[in-house]
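Researcher: For the annotation table, I need structure tokens for 2-C-methyl-D-erythritol 4-phosphate cytidylyltransferase. Please keep the output clean. Sequence:
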Amino acid sequence: MLRSAILTAAGSGSRLGSTLPKALVPLDGVPLLVHAARRLLASGEVTTLVVTAPAAHVDDVRAALAGLTLPDGTPPALTVVPGGASRQASVAAGLAALPPGDGTVLVHDAARALTPPDVVARVARAVAAGHVAVTPLVPVVDSLQAVADGAFAAGHLPVGGVPTLGATPRTGLGIVQTPQGFDRATLDAAHAAARAAGVDGSDEATAATDDATLVERAGHRVHAVAGDELALKITTRRDLALATLLLADQPRDS
């Protein structure tokens, strides 16, 4: 069974206040995508890695990833390709660069640089157990409230299809993280179905925000496993500062 991962690293660093692409922004002196790639490989569940990079920085990304190793000390099969106009388009480019054949494929965001290896393993093993789509979630801890015209809406986000009044119950709600894991054939078919429907990811406004959404739209059930607070998405300078503090609390070989 193929064990592959697509690491999306084609985003800009504008909201981090950086002139570098987001994935090359350093965290404790190491680019975000290197942190993410190391943890993917440390899980022992990934042997092939395809990274999508900004077109102008393919060589920079390839250089940053030089020296990566699997847990046994051997190098992974590594490919770096230009990403697309959206995350969906970038993942499609990554899928096209994977070796042919069915198997397990993980899709991970370089911006979730501190995702622990055990979350990666949990996702991959759930796919191997027969779930065609798997995503890690962390529980929602904040109160949620729908707003309309600057005030609380009379009805709010429906839970179980039944709109109710007041704050949205948090039970049954989760925050989606990555890596998301898929049966390769199922993910290929979901991307093909989106393209056939005219949603190819060339327009950020209409592109799918994640691959679990595409697979769910194709009629498949998405299985949930436990995520981790360390898998936060690093988007702003505040996120980067928080990640720096979290990293300082981790073992140096994490």
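Researcher: And a one-line annotation?
Model: The domain at 2-143+174-248 is CATH 3.90.550.10 (Spore Coat Polysaccharide Biosynthesis Protein SpsA; Chain A).
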